[in-house]
Design brief:
alpha/beta, 6-stranded mixed beta barrel, globular, about 1000 residues, 41 strands, single chain, binds iron/sulfur cluster, 7-stranded mixed sheet
Length: about 1000
């Protein structure tokens, strides 16, 4: 069979039961069976999904099952309707009860299921590839242990019990490979010995256990917290928010005083949306079939205008009013120019900004107010310089709450409590006298913001952002031409680079300038979950013996350097205390996997002992992540590395053990609340098919949950096993399998949301169609029937978009936003000791030593930008065979003018090099008018070296991989080069030589840099 024809009929889907049966039979019989079965499967595997779906949609057919669940093709969390025929997933469509599949207008939650099954709803292209993701022959189904050097790809299968025993207790686990070192186990870390008695703030040796999660959603997030924080007692349970898009979140974090990071323009009622780095027709959350579809729908009906600010004309640009081809990393300059123009022309909402308190805002029809009028001490000689002026600063006799109140200036320019009037002076400064006769210079937050914007002229901002001043002014005018029915939608591109906080903060502030925060058609947060799921009928949060995780995280997120022993020692020895060895991040949203890995690399502020990586591929996904191959290879830096994943990727290639996990189609239970904007619901993720992984002797599928449960029991940790879960009635229940936890979570949710009991037909539907129904005996009859009501509908969706508003005001809004953030203003850069600006300021992307990156790498003529394509998620969709058929490879996208100068054309091979990767990497050119001159664009998703792309010398691989002998021969795993096509942009990304040549991050929030790498391009003559 030619390579080409194999791709048309991929050796993919082997249902779980078939695979397990295969493993039991002899090799000879197996070979014969495999050939016959493969032919049969080839004939039936790719049944027309549309035909099956259509047939199933109107019936409760016994052979065709349907399950409403939640997608995890990406993080957008749309609803799904899985169609399963004879145990095999054959098609995915949307859930009509779910707002994300219905452009925010689902069918009524009360609609009987029988009627709902006749209603179809869309999902995006990624979700349609779910059968290929599930049946990927390179999925691992058995636990494996390293059988050679780290990174060699030598693994061998081991028994589950051996895996659990060795990880629990440690020991000389690799003596047979000549490694005589004692490997730490989990059990040995569960002690209260300090890591460093001279630095007690770091915590105990428990923190030597580090768990880093790639894809992290509610459900599994809480379950893993239970193990890491509550059972082992480590603070180091780290997400991956930094690489997911912490930049724009940092702007919102500053804007809302850490209350909210997910805020977006309302696509249902906005008249104008300004998109900053938001690729709404290809990615975003909510996804392309939600936010993108709403915008497309309304803009084509002339109800909505929008502008794309991006160095690349994203697909949405075809409907946009304008494409603003901003320079990479210069969104802040553009935003600052807009702010300056809006203030200069007076086109801001003065009435909203001058309202100094909630009551004043409410009287003029706003649910939210800002601190624009609040007075800030701008007096370097004053003890409270950079802080808000409070009543006690003028009157030391004012104590308690009264003394803490903010002050504003009234119409006469006199200081008065902020809650004592309806409108205060907005653009003002004053010199006040305190009770002791001293003077205090103060400015309003608005004035400070204005001064920040006035540091550069409009022409400067136009030049720095690379946008013509006329276009900047046009966009600013449009943004201010729709009252409060306009807002910004900023996303990954808006601030995911060094100094990105000072791009994303002014972008967010623009919504306050027009008063559209918390307004219909304005800047809205999500409404939150429908009801709690981890408490109520069953307490899933607390248990006897629960540990209290304490100390500094390896990422140093949310920890203050100035309280550290390192700082105090440096101060005591006569210095300023600065710089810290690596940056600390007291003001961050957190989820800093990059700085966690850099901390591990440098054993700072303390060493890692045991690393668990889950659903995580940092070497591929992090800009410059390849640098961590040295880290993961080192026994000193990572004494034990256990990966929990569905395949062998570029990173867990270095692991000591790999634990097979299930996909979201087989488990991965979840309780998903909405992203911004608006809405209030909880979608449920539940299995749609039985797991294809192997199973324990007592029949539990190998998975994250099974591993952590067994490991906790093996290590003698609390919170798992017998009597681990407390019922509301006082009864105690075991936690031996995933469903012991999650099914009780579903019962909690259904009960707290007061959903009715399902009718008999719907109970029968769930019991026939849903794999989770096998465990219904865990609940009493009433609990099961209410759970069935929610399960049958894919979650709790009992509120509509309209219910979220009282008139024009969002009921679940922010209530207060700031132009000046006091906490940020009083936080110091842990490397330089300087304070961070508390309001807007133009700052170019810089390295940790303050060098401007564009100047430092000026000899590299092109700015590298990255992006997502609509048929792929970041790093794990090379198994999406249909997507790969549509787009078999990615390209180095070069502007047509640049292509002419370089002498390249479509398909030419070029070598790209960067300061941090002088050897470089290669890719094929695609010439385009849709990218800014001087930029080169490379999508993610491609350029894999693992996940099936390369051969690996695994031992007895036929039992390790789902594809069995289809993907394994006597030499080990057979690589499929078609899974490794294209180029990975992260190989070129800038490292920071000031910090051990680790991936470059922003020193405020720990933002990894996706936009500051510069490259050279050279045509390869063949
Ligand atoms: S956008 Fe697509 S892949 Fe992402 S959750 Fe929605 S349907 Fe699934």
């Amino acid at each position: 069979m030619s390579d080409e024809s194999k791709m048309q009929n991929p050796p993919a889907s082997s249902p779980a039961q078939t695979r397990r049966d295969f493993i039991k039979v002899s090799a000879v019989t197996m070979a014969a069976l495999t050939a016959a079965t493969r032919q049969a499967e080839a004939a039936s595997r790719w049944l027309n999904p549309r035909r099956i779906q259509k047939a199933a949609a109107t019936s409760l057919d016994q052979d065709v099952k349907q399950v409403h669940s939640t997608c995890l093709g990406c993080n957008a969390r749309c609803g799904t309707r899985a169609t399963v025929q004879n145990g095999r997933l054959v098609a995915m469509s949307g859930n009509p009860y779910h707002p994300y599949n219905t452009k925010f207008s689902p069918i009524s939650y009360a609609t009987p299921l029988r009627q709902a099954l006749a209603v179809t709803a869309p999902v995006c292209g990624k979700a349609h590839d779910a059968p290929n993701y599930l049946n990927n022959p390179y999925r691992i189904v058995q636990p494996m242990k390293r059988a050679g050097k780290r990174g060699s790809g030598r693994f061998e299968p081991i028994e589950w019990d051996q895996l659990v025993r060795e990880v629990a207790t440690g020991g000389k686990l690799f003596a047979h490979l000549g490694e005589q070192r004692e490997v730490p186990g989990i059990k040995g870390l569960a002690k209260d010995t300090l890591i460093d008695k001279d630095a007690p703030e770091l915590g105990t040796v428990r923190n030597g256990f580090v768990f880093i999660a790639g894809r992290d959603q509610n459900g599994r997030l809480e379950f893993t917290n239970r193990f890491v924080k509550d059972a082992v007692g480590s603070v180091n349970r780290v997400g991956h928010t930094d690489i997911c898009g912490i930049g724009f979140r940092m702007g919102n974090l500053a804007f809302t005083e850490k209350k909210e990071v997910e805020i977006k323009a309302d696509p249902v009622n906005a008249e104008y949306i300004l998109l900053f780095g938001a690729n709404i027709y290809e990615a975003l959350q909510p996804g392309v079939n939600t936010y993108g579809a709403l915008v497309a729908n309304r803009s084509s009906g002339a109800k909505l205008k929008f502008t794309v600010v991006d160095p690349r004309a994203t697909n949405a640009s075809c409907h946009a009013d304008e494409w603003v081809a901003v320079k990479p990393g210069q969104d802040g300059a553009f935003a600052m120019g807009l702010i300056r123009w809006i203030i200069e022309t007076g086109r801001y909402n003065r009435e909203f900004l001058a309202a100094p308190n909630p009551n004043a805002a409410d009287k003029i029809g706003h649910a939210c107010y800002s601190n624009a009028t609040h007075l800030v001490i701008a007096d370097q000689g004053h003890l409270h310089d950079r802080k808000f002026l409070r009543v006690a600063d003028l009157d030391p006799g004012a104590t308690g709450e009264a003394g803490k109140g903010y002050l504003v200036l009234n119409g006469e320019g006199l200081p008065v409590p902020f809650d004592s009037l309806g409108q205060a002076l907005l653009d003002a400064a004053a010199t006040l006298t305190d009770a002791a006769g001293g003077t205090i210079r103060v400015k309003t937050a608005f004035r400070l913001m204005k001064e920040g914007a006035w540091e550069h002229s409009l022409d400067d901002y136009a030049r720095m952002s690379g946008v013509e001043r006329g276009q900047m002014e046009r966009v600013a005018r449009e943004f201010t031409s729709h009252g409060t029915r306009a807002a910004v939608c900023q996303y990954h591109g808006a601030g995911n680079y060094a100094s990105g906080v000072y791009a994303a903060f002014p972008i967010a502030i623009r919504n306050a300038l027009i008063g559209s925060v918390d307004r219909k058609g304005g800047y809205l947060r999500g409404g939150g979950e429908a009801a709690p799921w981890n408490s109520g009928l069953y307490d899933l949060k607390s248990f006897p013996g629960q540990a209290k995780a304490k100390g500094v995280m390896l990422s140093r997120e949310k920890a203050s350097y100035e309280t550290s022993s390192e700082f105090k020692k440096k101060r005591a020895s006569g210095g300023s205390g600065y710089p810290a060895q690596r940056p600390w991040f007291p003001f961050t949203q957190g989820g800093l996997c990059v700085e966690t890995l850099s901390g591990i690399d440098q054993s700072y502020p303390y060493p890692c002992q045991v690393l668990f990586s889950y659903f995580f591929n940092p070497l591929y996904s992090i800009p410059g992540g390849q640098r961590y191959s040295e880290t993961l290879e080192s026994f000193e830096k990572v004494p034990l590395h256990v990966s929990i994943d569905i395949g062998i990727n570029e990173s867990n290639l270095y692991a000591d053990y790999i634990v097979p996990d299930i996909t979201y189609l087989e488990g991965h239970y979840g309780f998903l609340s909405p992203h911004a904007p608006a809405l209030k619901f909880t979608a449920i993720r539940t299995p749609v098919v039985e797991p294809v992984t192997g199973s324990t002797k007592d029949g539990r599928a190998f998975s994250l949950e099974t591993f952590l449960i067994d490991l906790a029991k093996g290590a003698g940790l609390p919170g798992f096993g017998d009597a681990a879960i407390q019922g509301k009635d006082g009864a105690r229940h075991p936690l031996h399998r995933a469903e012991d936890y999650y099914l009780r979570g579903i019962a909690n949710l259904a009960d707290a949301a007061k959903v009715p009991e399902a009718v008999a037909e719907e109970v029968a539907f769930v019991e026939h169609n849903y794999p989770v129904a096998r465990h219904k005996g865990l609940l009493n009859d009433r609990e099961w029937r209410t759970a069935c009501y929610a399960l049958a509908r894919g979650g709790v969706f009992n509120r509509r978009y309209e219910d979220d508003f009282g008139g024009e005001q969002h009921r679940f809004g922010l209530k207060r936003v700031v132009l000046y953030n006091e906490e940020l203003a009083t936080t110091r850069n842990s490397l330089s000791g300087a304070f961070f600006p508390g309001t807007v300021k133009y700052l170019p992307p810089e390295d940790a030593a303050g060098n401007v990156l564009a100047e430092k790498d000026a000899s590299y003529p092109f700015a590298l930008i990255t992006y997502k394509m609509n048929l792929h998620a970041q790093s794990r969709t090379s198994s999406h065979r249909w997507s790969m058929e549509v787009f078999p490879e990615n390209f180095v996208v070069v502007n047509e003018g640049d292509a002419g100068e370089l002498g390249v054309t479509d398909g030419d091979l070029v070598q790209l090099t960067s300061a941090s990767n002088p050897r470089g990497t290669r890719g094929k050119v695609k010439v385009s008018a849709l990218i800014r001159p001087g930029c080169v664009g490379i999508s993610f998703h491609y350029g894999h070296t693992q996940l099936g792309a390369s051969a690996l010398p695994v031992t007895r691989g036929e039992t390790l991989f789902l594809g069995g002998s289809e993907v394994v021969n006597s030499a080990g795993l057979i690589g499929d080069p078609r899974l490794g096509t294209g180029i990975s942009p992260n190989l070129l990304s800038r490292l920071d030589e000031n910090l051990g040549n680790t991936p470059l991050v922003d020193v405020v929030g720990g933002i990894p840099d996706f936009s500051s790498t510069r490259v050279n391009i050279r045509k390869i003559v063949r």
